[in-house]
Amino acid sequence: MDDQIAKKPKKTWTHQRDNRERLIDAGYTLLSENGIEATTVKEIARLADVSPGLFHYYFASKDELLLAVIYEAGTRFNQQLMQEFQKLSVERPFAEVAMLAVATVSRSHTAWYRLRYELYALGLRNPDFLPAIGEMLAKGRQGIAQTIQEQTGIDEARARAIASVFHACTDGLALQQLAQPGLDLTAAYELVQHLLVVEPAPEK
User: Fold this and answer.
1) Distance between CA atoms of 55 and 60, rounded to whole angstroms?
2) 121 closest CA partner among 106, 138, 136, 133
3) Proportion of the chain above pLDDT 90, given as a percent
4) What is the SS3 string spanning 182-196?
């Protein structure tokens, strides 16, 4: 009886998918708060409640985890952004609320931008990651361009050009907001939004 009481129950690892998701969640928290250089695999594993060895079963390095975290964080950000679009578009057209929605969600998702900057810095330190960064940026531009076309009817070439500007502006404005949290950038977002105005076709 005493032996049975003294024995600790064996730790049973959860389903593999769940382990990976928990590592990504832990990475999201720690990498966005502390940065990739100051975060250790041991800390990530501890927060995810898995062994450090299991971390390396799913990810070759912290850099690889950062990529997985970025894609997961991007999905969360985009879901909230679409909800904000829908809420604001009830009374005003998309062209008038698009960047205001981005501004609202960006202020509440600072971790998403911190992670992006970590990834950009990683690409500068390790050129092997630049193709992955390029792929992420291309996917983002494509999604923005598609949404612009669907909502405004702007032709594809102009939508792609606007998407590139939006991408650069939102990253830059978010960085300014991180550096100066009290800074009011509403006018700047509204200025960028004017790119969505569809000019009337010239009379023949």
Assistant:
1) 8
2) 133
3) 60
4) CCCCHHHHHHHHHHH
